Amino acid sequence: MMISSIGEFLLPRKLDDRQKKHTSFWISMWSVFDFLMVLCICIVQLSAKGAVTNTPCTIIDNCCVRNMTNFWKHKTELRCSEIQIIPVVNEIIHVLLEYNKIHVVENWAFNGSEIAKLSLRGNYLDYLSEHSFDGILNLRTLDLSHSSMKVLPTSGLKSLEILRIENAPSMTVMPSVYLFSNLKEAYLTYSFHCCSFQFPAKHDYSKYEFHKEGLQTPSECVQSKENNNYVNLVTDDFLENGYIDYANGSEEEFFNEPTMTNSTQDIICGNITPPTMRSDVKCWPQPDALNPCEDIMGFYWLRVSVWLVGSAALLANVVVLTVVFRKNFNHSVPRFLMSNLAFADFCTAIYLLLLAYEDLVSSEKYFNYAYTWQNGVGCKIGGFLTVFSSQLSVFALCLLTIERWYSIRKALYTNKMTFASTVRIMAIGWVYSIVMATMPLLGISSYSTTSICLPMDTARASGMCYVFTLLAFGAAAFVLMLFCYVQIYMSLSYETRHAAKGEASVARKISVLIGTNFACTAPVIFFGFTALLGYPLIDVTKSKILLVFFYPINSCANPFLYTILTASFRREAFSTVAK
Prior knowledge:
alpha/beta, Leucine-rich repeat, LRR (right-handed beta-alpha superhelix), Rhopdopsin 7-helix transmembrane proteins, 3 domains, seven-stranded parallel β-sheet, 13 strands, 52% helix, 6% strand
């Protein structure tokens, strides 16, 4: 009747029959369309499964809230709706606000809402207020993955059971695990954050002490507060014996006692039922072989050894560089090569001391510093120094060995290694070393893979080829030095090696040089190749002993074997001190 009256109102009073029929046709079509619209609205209101709406709101205002609460009682999904800010919102039950443009979540944004799952996945989340999630009733699942969030506000998350913060690289600090009372599963970005659930005391000692106070013995827990009045929670039997005596009908009386439903209990000095241990939380990604939950050095004796080896290498190579640069090179090839070797070993000593200092600072709680260290400038500098120094040292050692081999085997030849040719060859070594040390900074492998800042990332083909090149160069250099020293040793006759004092000394020095190079280089190359082929024989904890202790011993031994223990160097050192 309403539609027909509207039609009569709209029609002119004087219409011919043809016009009336035409108008009646459109009025009938309008009635059918109106009926279909009413039917669709009823179907949507009766639907309990929810639907997706692309609300053009940039802010969840009252209009949007009415739409959500009226049509989707059990699930609200506003995906890709270009929402930017969430102010205070009421009466929302289940919210999925994924892949919008939300930058800010205001304080008490969901106050009074009963939300089982809240998903802000794929938003910016530049600013989360301290009380963004406060006031939410029975929140069980929170998803903040794929965001730029830096800090996770913990207020209001005590009932949380599942936490997802995957692919959120800006969040580098994990709040104390004791702030999540009921957490069962955590899906995080970094594996070292999962270490906080395994070692909560090391993660946040102050919160651990506060939590431990709540786990005191039953004899210390006497009172609770209910409506500002103190009442006894336990009986004398419980205080004296540590348990409740249910004999003589006390069990029936105990279980028939009315429960307290409308008040809050504050345990003054302990909990009757201890909360779930934080180690029971299932956390991903798990700490792997490259990043276990341990300190940088892993062993106390290794920590002391690194300080000793690094300090000795630093002092010895400083002495060599001081004496060499105080004297003119005089176009001496051995002196020039020894200065390059000393500088390379000096860089290795700096790397060792840098690791030792960071290990000292982060002792017993390294996973709290893991992100800052492994992704910071210090680790990149340390990684660059160790790769640069190791390659330059190997290059200089090879040239020194070749120069000695050429001087002995070709002693009668006049075309020996000239100073100019040695400088050109050594310049190639410098370029090669700098290029190899720079590659991980450009994305080929990475210095951030492990706590000792070595490029051990072989997930991609480029990283695998890079590590293979380093190992192959070291293996080829060792074989070359072994060949040259064996030939030098064999050039001495049996009688000369054992009778002549000077020649016997040379033979012993050659044996020491070969032995130290083999002991420091061969294990690293062997275990490196096995790991590269997919059959690692030792884990990272044991490989640190090789990479941080045995391999750098060369940096401490080289100054003595090649320079300090020689008679000519001692004479120059005495003359330098005398001046």
